[in-house]
Amino acid sequence: VFVVEQFDSQTFNRGWNFNVGVAIASAQKSASPDISDGMRFDFDCAVIQDIDYLPEKGVDYADCAVPMQLSSEIDRYNWKTPYMKSAGGIVGMNLAH
What we know:
Largest sheet: 3 strands, antiparallel
Strand content: 5-15%
Number of strands: 3
Mean pLDDT: 80
């Protein structure tokens, strides 16, 4: 589990936070000179989520053959896809995506 926080005084940038987390977890050295091969974690799927969404029991977060918006897998949306209102929340993908 990686927790990525923005700590500067700039406008909050959700996408930047997600990109930083994936870059560190996958040791993408091109993202920063501070990243090394030794930082790499072996994973098949990356699931990025907003802090106000909690994982639900019974949801398979390991399936990431295609990028998938998983916020429909929570009771907040009555177990229905909220695509028309939300494209964020919880997203699963692999590094090829």
